[in-house]
Amino acid sequence: MKVIKSLAGLVLLSAALPTLADECSLTIEGNDAMQFNQQELSVPASCKEVTLTLNHTGNLDKKVMGHNWVLSQTADMQAIASGGISAGADNDYLDTSDERILAHTDLIGGGESSTVTFSTEGMSAGGDYSYFCSFPGHIGIMKGKFTITE
């Protein structure tokens, strides 16, 4: 009887694992109209790692309409974007040595995708986090809130 209960518990646990993994996996799209398809993304505090995939649904090359996804404290967004412009096109408009960047994808063009997996260690529920695209001029429109929920 104990074996049956143990097996039943394992079955229930294994059924729950994909749900937990799904909660910790996010997808967002950027397009040629300089828009993300979501203005808010959230994950539960139980996620120790988050995997985010950025899909560029447009057709334009990254030199013309490139998009990335950059996560930071909201207060740091503009300074990071300005540093990205200084880093230039050769560095995909992002100074990756900037420690204020919590996570980022590659800069991609139309039809491409990029995935990043990042730790939430040091981030907290209720923290003021935002995401944005660092391609020059995009931060004004391509931004949103990132929330860790209890």
From TrEMBL:
UniProt domain Blue (type 1) copper: residue ranges: 23-148
One GO molecular-function entry: copper ion binding
Gene3D superfamilies (alphabetical): Cupredoxins - blue copper proteins
CDD domains in UniProt: Azurin (cd13922)
Places the protein is found: Periplasm
GO cellular component: periplasmic space
SUPFAM superfamilies: Cupredoxins (SSF49503)
TM helices/strands, residue ranges: none
Signal peptide region: 1-21
Keywords: Copper, Electron transport, Metal-binding, Periplasm, Signal, Transport
Matching InterPro entries: Azurin, BlueCu_1, BlueCu_1_BS, Cu-binding_ET, Cupredoxin
Functional summary from the UniProt entry: Transfers electrons from cytochrome c551 to cytochrome oxidase.
Protein name stated in the entry: Azurin
Organism: Oceanimonas doudoroffii
Lineage, highest ranks first: Bacteria, Pseudomonadati, Pseudomonadota, Gammaproteobacteria, Aeromonadales
